[in-house]
Amino acid sequence: MTDRYCVFGNPVAHSRSPAIHARFAAQCHQDLSYEALLAPLDGFSATAREFVAAGGKGANVTLPFKEEAFGLCTRRSARAERAGAVNTLDFTGSGIFGDNTDGAGLVRDIEVNLGFPLAGKRLLLLGAGGAARGVIAPILERQLAGLFIANRNGDKADALAGQFSDLATVDAGNFAKTAGRTFDVVINATSASLSGAALPLPAGIFAPGSLAYDMMYGKGETPFLALAREQGAAHLADGLGMLVEQAAEAFLVWRGVRPDGAPVLAALREQLAA
Ligand code: NDP
């Protein structure tokens, strides 16, 4: 019998996850199906439970249900506990297991696909929402030279940094507080690019040879990457690789085998450019 998987979201029709997992399944010779399922805004848990009752083996969870998915789990990985959100559910054991693969996906995209090791780097993380919180612990594991979290609302950045103070000293504040500093990696985890808004970043924050990474992806350059290019960032990347690599990590959780993300990313990139 073909094993069933899905991604829950609202909206979800735009999701690229079915195409990604279809390619992973073919690459790894796994007999599975993967579909996008729209859950009502007030009915995520009921929809997930129906999927389990119908024999579903696992699921991804996207906006706006990652926090609710966290609450649905009977067991969670340490990285999901840290993130306070779950993007991967496994229904095959006793109860419901929850994981968060976003941070691992980001780190793998930067270090493996982009060939940019994070050890010893000064990293600026922009944003203090769910996406930012989800990646902090996996980033801190890479032995950075330092992490600064900057957010439009500086108090939220301070509070977020405080939640990770047992792992490392993390600087935080509003965007203006980064003035006078330089960074080797700047990651945009705000949703500003979604609305086409530019971030009010001080000039001079990009160190020579630095990487600017926007978690957002789509056709064309995001406002953040355009700004980074103007300000001299040497390497620019969008979040498509993170999307593919968090999916590869979820596939590993479900199937015990890790697909190679690189060829799938290349194929997706071609589709997006067409
Ligand atoms: P949240 O709604 O939880 O957080 C939004 C964040 O963006 C907050 O820090 C908010 O600041 C900031 N923000 C919003 N608008 C602006 C603006 N105009 N100027 C400055 N800051 C702004 O969203 P998420 O954290 O869940 O998602 C953030 C982004 O990450 C989205 O674009 C999402 O698509 C992307 N993402 C990509 C993934 C991938 O696989 N590539 C995975 C997960 C997320 P404030 O607190 O001041 O309001």
Automatic annotation (TrEMBL):
Ranges where the SDH C-terminal domain occurs: 239-269
Q: Where is the signal peptide?
A: none
SUPFAM superfamilies to which the protein is assigned, alphabetical: Aminoacid dehydrogenase-like, N-terminal domain, NAD(P)-binding Rossmann-fold domains
Residues that, per the record, bind shikimate: S15, R16, S17, T62, N87, D102, Y217, Q246
The residues listed in the UniProt record as binding NADP(+), with positions renumbered to this chain, are G127, A128, G129, G130, A131, M215, G239
Outline the extent of the Quinate/shikimate 5-dehydrogenase/glutamyl-tRNA reductase domain: 118-193
Pfam families hit by this protein: SDH_C, Shikimate_DH, Shikimate_dh_N
In which pathway is this protein known to take part? Metabolic intermediate biosynthesis; chorismate biosynthesis; chorismate from D-erythrose 4-phosphate and phosphoenolpyruvate: step 4/7
Location of the active site: K66
Spell out the InterPro entries in the cross-references: Aminoacid_DH-like_N_sf, NAD(P)-bd_dom_sf, SDH_C, Shikimate_DH, Shikimate_DH-bd_N, Shikimate_DH_fam, Shikm_DH/Glu-tRNA_Rdtase
The family note in this entry says: Belongs to the shikimate dehydrogenase family.
Q: What is this protein called?
A: Shikimate dehydrogenase (NADP(+))
